[in-house]
Write a structure and sequence with these properties.
The complex is a heterodimer of chains A (297) and B (204). In chain A, helix 4 runs parallel beside helix 6. Chain A is 81% helix and 0% strand. Chain A is globular. Chain A is an all-alpha fold and 297 residues long. Among the domains of chain A are: 48 residues, no CATH class; 58 residues, Tetratricopeptide repeat domain (Serine Threonine Protein Phosphatase 5, Tetratricopeptide repeat, Alpha Horseshoe); 94 residues. The termini of chain A are far apart. With 204 residues, chain B is an alpha/beta fold. Helices cover 35% and strands 24% of the residues of chain B. In chain B, helix 1 packs parallel to helix 4. The chains are: A mainly alpha (297), B alpha/beta (204). At the A-B interface, helix 10, helix 12, helix 14, helix 15 and helix 16 of A face helix 2 of B. Chain B: Pfam families: UPF0172. Chain B: This is ER membrane protein complex subunit 8.
Chain lengths: 297, 204
């Protein structure tokens, strides 16, 4: 039923369908959204029905991304007219102030939302975004930690915090955030793979072995994840080359690395079919793997 | 001792930054391998002929960077290139100082190529018209990175670079630019960007 209605929607109005898809996938393709959305609003507003309000919101945010304050202002006015006193619209007004770098005014806007509704997570997160935009990473991290003590299930926040820690090179704490995400999303191969990357970056034999395990886990969850495949190869190779491992461990990791090499080669062969340029990539990968095997033994 | 950039190298750097305005981006610059070291080699500048866009978003993780460096090194050897530089544009527009990532990667490249340069993109001056070069070039001297003034002399042909980069930005060519991240998402994506290279040549 769902597919029927989606294709029906597409047939009726492909632009509207595109906007919806981008909304659902949380794509930040702001220029495209502005292109499609602006035309839709200007030419076909009457045909959009109630969807027009969510489209105004989507286009407004995209317009801010593209420095189109004229368009953002128009959308905001329409939303203000339709939803006077709405916290959600107030937050959009705050985002516009952020885009204009009027951070104090934006902060006041969010504070007024929080006065009426202290549990408004969107306003709290925008305040943290302001800190980030101002380069106040330590404060952003502190506020985000406080936020997560209250809203422990907010995955977007955990992920944001992991990124903030990575940028500060605090890999231990970044790993902790990703562990939270993996616990609540055990089937998400991306979290596994990112966790493995963090562990690898942390370095040391123990972390390398952990990283190899989690690259492998990510692959189990999604065997198309090239980062996990490369990661498995790299971590196994480094472990095998380490003077601190005994012969058994070395042998096992050589096997893992060899398996990964095969899979990588296969993936490149499959991808390279037909294109002249990609043949070069295939060759480069083969040579790279060969040269690494030499250093490994 | 100094590097110069071709139009193609400059173009692809800026297209990469334009494709991901909300992210940090980084990449490598490659130069043609010199056949023999000339006696007065410090008078001939190194010409960076191409740019390989690497990542966008989180730059501070090691494994994929190692993969990219090794793979691109192999590709360089086949094409008689050498990795000669590294560029980075930070996430925040106003932040154009090199950070730990830039210094680490830069140092790694300098190990294999003593005249390596580190380039930071100054996004505050990034315009569609490209009226001035928006780079800060850092050279490696005695384990420190020293900033050098970037002007038209740092380009093989600044007028051409300005004209072509501006044209490609207007035409939104950055939408089809492929970086190493895109390649890892789908191996068919070609990080050598042959189509964009063709567009650059076409406009020359």
């Amino acid at each position: 039923m769902l597919y029927e209605s989606m294709s029906f929607l597409y047939y009726l109005n492909p632009e509207k369908y595109k906007l919806r898809k981008w909304r659902e996938d949380n794509h930040r393709n702001s220029e495209q959204i502005v292109d499609v959305g602006e035309e839709l609003i200007n030419e076909h507003a009457s045909k959009l029905g109630d969807d027009i309000w969510i489209i105004y919101e989507q286009v407004m945010i995209a317009a801010l991304d593209c420095s189109r304050d004229d368009l953002a202002w128009t959308c905001l006015q329409e939303l203000k007219k339709q939803f006077p006193g709405s916290q959600r619209v107030k937050r959009l007004a705050g985002m516009r102030l952020e885009a204009l770098e009027k951070y104090e005014d934006a902060s006041k806007q969010y504070d007024s939302i929080l006065q009426d509704d202290p549990t408004n997570t969107a306003a709290r997160k925008r305040k943290i975004s302001i800190l980030k935009a101002q380069g106040k990473s330590a404060e952003a991290i502190r506020e985000l930690n406080e936020y997560l003590e209250q809203f422990v299930g907010d995955q977007e926040a955990w992920h944001e915090l992991s990124e903030l820690y990575i940028n500060e090179h605090d890999y231990g704490k970044a790993a902790f955030c990703l562990e939270e995400l993996m616990m609540t999303n055990p089937h998400n191969h991306l979290y596994c793979e990112q966790y493995a990357e963090v562990k690898y970056t942390q370095g040391g034999l123990e972390n390398l072995e952990l990283s190899r395990k989690y690259f492998a886990q990510a692959l189990k969850l999604n065997n198309g994840n090239m980062r996990a495949l490369f990661g498995l190869y790299m971590s196994a190779s480094h472990i095998a080359a380490s003077p601190k491992v005994n012969a058994t461990v070395k042998k096992a990791n050589v096997k893992y690395a060899a398996w990964a090499t095969n899979q990588i080669n296969r993936a490149y062969q499959l991808a390279g079919r037909g294109t002249k340029e990609n043949k070069c990539s295939v060759k480069a990968v083969e040579e790279m793997l060969e040269s690494m095997q030499i250093t490994m033994s | 001792m100094s590097i110069k950039l071709t139009t193609q190298a400059y173009c692809k750097m800026l297209l990469h930054a334009a494709k991901y305005p909300h992210c940090a981006v980084n990449g490598l610059l490659v130069a043609e391998k010199q056949k023999e070291k000339k006696k007065d080699s410090h008078s001939t500048p190194i010409l960076c002929v191409d740019c390989i866009p690497l990542f966008h978003g989180t730059l501070a993780l090691a494994p994929m960077l190692e993969v990219a460096l090794t793979l691109i090194d192999t590709w360089c050897k086949e094409n008689k290139y050498v990795i000669a530089g590294y560029y980075q544009a930070n996430e925040r527009t106003k932040d154009f100082r090199p950070n730990q990532v830039a210094e680490k990667v830069g140092a790694r490249i300098a190990e294999n190529f003593s005249e390596a340069a580190m380039i930071m993109v100054d996004s505050t001056r990034f315009t569609m018209g490209c009226y001035e070069p928006i780079l800060a070039i850092y050279d490696h001297h005695e384990n420190k990175w020293k900033c050098r003034d970037c002007n038209a002399d740092c380009f093989e042909d600044w007028c051409e670079a300005q004209k072509i980069t501006s044209a490609l930005l207007e035409g939104r060519s950055y939408e089809s630019l492929i970086d190493f991240d895109n390649h890892l998402d789908d191996l068919r994506n070609d990080w050598t960007n042959p189509e964009i290279n063709k567009s650059v040549l076409h406009l020359c």
